[in-house]
Amino acid sequence: MPTVFAGKNIVIGVTGSIAAFKVAGWVSTLAKEEANVSVILTESGSRFVTPLTFSALSGNKTYGSMFDDRDDPMVHITLGQNADIMLIAPATANTIARLANGIADDLLTTTALVTRAEILICPAMNSRMYSHQMTRENIAKLKAAGYQLIDPAHGMMACKDEGEGRLAEWEDVVEYMAKSLTPQDLSGKKVLVTAGPTREHLDPARFLSNRSSGKMGYAMASAAFRRGAEVTLVSGPSTLSSPAGVATVSVESAEDMYNAVIGRADSMDIIVKSAAVADYRPAETARHKVKKEQIEGQLLLSRNRDILFELGRKKGEGQILVGFAAESQHLHEAGKNKLLKKNLDLIAVNDISGNDTGFESGTNQVLLISAKKTKRLPHTSKEHTADLIWDEIVLQ
Ligand code: PMT
User: Which residue among 150, 226, 243, 296 is least enclosed by CB atoms within 10 Å?
Assistant: First the structure.
């Protein structure tokens, strides 16, 4: 399945930081996804990684000086003109200062002034340099001028100082890059997505739950971010990392999820309930571990509140409500019933009869039902499924 990067002209500026070696891996990944990657390596960048490394990984020549390309004497213009996106990573304090002041004294900064593609900047430097007032002012200036800054991570740096300044992780950077290349059909929309299971505690050691991994809901949240939405993800316990650009609220039980969702619902344009919420909880949660003999044959359960039903009951004017359902038979009938009962605009019914659909798997097969039509989506990755579901949601 080709990704959003296939066939795109991506210019990557690499500057003089020890983190430059990490970007070699990014170039390799993008080239494998059939992007046309051109690396501009600054003079100090080339002290850390050689031009040959980037050429071998990108399959293209690595650019250095403005004046050493005999084939294209206008390279300082053409690279920027042809770019679909420009990434500067790692970006040193010095490069950030030059960019913020419109200085064009090498190929990288000149290209940045020429291009009209979005420019993403990943700062990487010692935390003292990063927190310095001059760097803060330069970053603020770049943001105001429309550059997309990707915050560095917090942690131990090469100099053994600990703080903010480590190059952002690829998992985050790739999301911002994908967003930059994706049509923004959810721009200005506030979206709330739920994901994962809930845990209903019997005591400090035991709980009732289900097999939901959160993959489907996290894919829905990431896809909405890439399409320009302001996304809140309310997630039950999951091993997945919070998606880039998404405000994640972690919850444990169905009651926690109820409060987190209902409290935010009124301000949302679109709500997608991918979570597998436990229908029942132990009637009582013991403060201390219950002896097994006390449980046998007497586990009393109470019904949890149906969050989606409540959302459907109080749905605001113009608000779009999307449910999910996990079914192993009579998919259409079960989906249609839930669509009507919960006052939904759309429901995605997961076929959980196979091993490679529904819970835990990386792929899914979904029947999408609205009041007007039913559409069977192909068996594909959850990321692709999420995009296909959003394609339908934006038509509602
Ligand atoms: O997380 P993964 O491993 O990727 O798996 C994905 C998934 C199978 C969990 C997911 O895609 C899915 O199908 N989620 C809904 C499963 C489910 O709980 O279906 P349901 O028929 O029980 O509920 C129907 C809808 O009502 C769901 O949107 C659910 O979030 C909502 N609900 C249910 C009960 C409840 N108390 N409150 C709710 O809001």
Answer: 296
